[in-house]
């Protein structure tokens, strides 16, 4: 569920003598695309040759360390798991698309001609601009595309032509995929994804000699930026045990339990899979029915408790809810056989037992986030089959139960790739958290990969201290049995929505789940697309309140009332198509949080005196956030 919204642009807090000296030099005026002097002055200095020599020596020294870090797993015969399988699938998919074009030579020539004409237009426009004419560009970048924000991408004739040629080529490649005949939907979706990855990787903004910002910084700092960047690259490959683990934030600024995940509470229960946290009340009275939160196990729970200003958990406590939250263990080889049934029994069911012991309330309201919501839905179907009514209402945050429209993550869920993942997990007993984090980052490469590669390794700058990206990097492992069940029954075979999934011999039929469901989707979600959540709503047999929030998988959920960034839409139950529902929906400014709380309170408005953690029935084990959340992958 990794989908943090990155900060506008990483900046550096580093200082360098060469850079400082360069900034004191007088700037020179640059020439604009039409041949006149630019209106702005760029502080570009000639490099200090002595400093450049020293910095290049540092650069090559750090490059040797980076190479050694990359080769270390190969020397230890651990290899780089999965890379060959992914590359093979990409080549096979793109070859299929190419073959569809080659069977019709005339159509292929016409497509090639379109690209050639685009290049001719770009070249002709560039010549006219250099002769002093004001000419609109043949192709423009998306205003949201931060790669080409620097002024030189528009005012400098060379960089402007380079940018336009890249945009024309990448969009032409996307059109080639969309217009290919006789391609099944799965292959087309994969081809689109792989073309997006290649286009993102080949952007001129990613290379030293074709990025004007990087060129300026390299001149100004006499190459010190490249030496720093190579040092950071070596450190990040070492941190990734031979694979690049891109630093997206300054991790030294955050500590879980201090300035993150610091809502007061106690761990009131612990077993092999969970620690159960009960939060300290801040109101004299609370709703009688407690709230149990089931977070995803592929991330740590504190996405809902980042800091006091963004914490959904702290806010829920302040509304008068008795809040319990599961904190999953970061599993290792000892947990290899822990499957979905174990996560249901030792996770959700164990938590329900403790909540009843502590509060005396048999029934709870429950929240499931992302795959935590999928697990909660599985538990609800199981409980419906067994006549277990301990969950009286459920809220699903960006949760899929039908995976027909599951988005680009389905790229990683074909039979060959799942089998390769299972072989990897069989050897280790778990899937390394970095593998899943990398997959999520690939869904938004131009936001979560390439800006940091340029900023960190070419500019040599530290990224911002950003809490969401710290959480994003705090990945968790996944037990082999659990992850295999999830991939096969959900992404590959879509068994859960079809009533074909089984758990402990019980057929899981979501239509038997008749409790009220609050189903939250987010409009720009690329992990659990709004359409997928909408379609999944029809699987449940009871009343469903579908709510659509602005933004994406994380920002649309973590949208506090005190500082709301995004709106939300309501229109009752999900009837018809998503487009029909949106057309009739009411847009509300700000967050959906108060709307959700009124929905919860309406289900059971009874109030009781506030409950302290443990309730006098259970001795707390330790302070929140506990110990499991501190375990690093």
Explain what the structure shows.
Residues 8-42 have low confidence and may be disordered. The protein has two domains: 48-245, no CATH class; 265-431 and 466-521 and 597-630, Alpha/Beta hydrolase fold, catalytic domain (Rossmann fold), CATH 3.40.50. Helix 4 (105-130) runs antiparallel to helix 6 (157-179). Strands 17-16-15-14-9-8-6-7-4-3-19 form an eleven-stranded mixed beta sheet, sandwiched between helices. It has 22 helices and 19 strands. The protein is of the alpha/beta class and 633 residues long. Helices cover 44% and strands 12% of the residues.
List keywords for this structure.
Rossmann fold; two-stranded antiparallel sheet; 22 helices; 11-stranded mixed β-sheet; 44% helix; single chain; 2 domains; globular; 633 residues; alpha/beta
Helix content, binned percent: 40-55%
Number of helices: 22
How far apart the termini lie comes to 16 Å
Query: Radius of gyration, Cα only, in angstroms?
Result: 27 Å
Mean pLDDT: 90
CATH-defined superfamily of the largest domain = Alpha/Beta hydrolase fold, catalytic domain
Count of individual beta strands = 19
Can you tell me the CATH topology of the largest domain? Rossmann fold
User: What does the largest sheet look like?
Assistant: 11 strands, mixed
Number of domains: 2
How would you name the oligomeric state of the polypeptide chains in this document?
single chain
What fraction of residues sit in β-strands? 5-15%
What's the CATH class label of the largest domain? Alpha Beta
Low-pLDDT segments, ≥5 res: 8-42
**CATH architecture assignment name of the largest domain:** 3-Layer(aba) Sandwich
Shape: globular
For the biggest β-sheet, the strand order reads 17-16-15-14-9-8-6-7-4-3-19
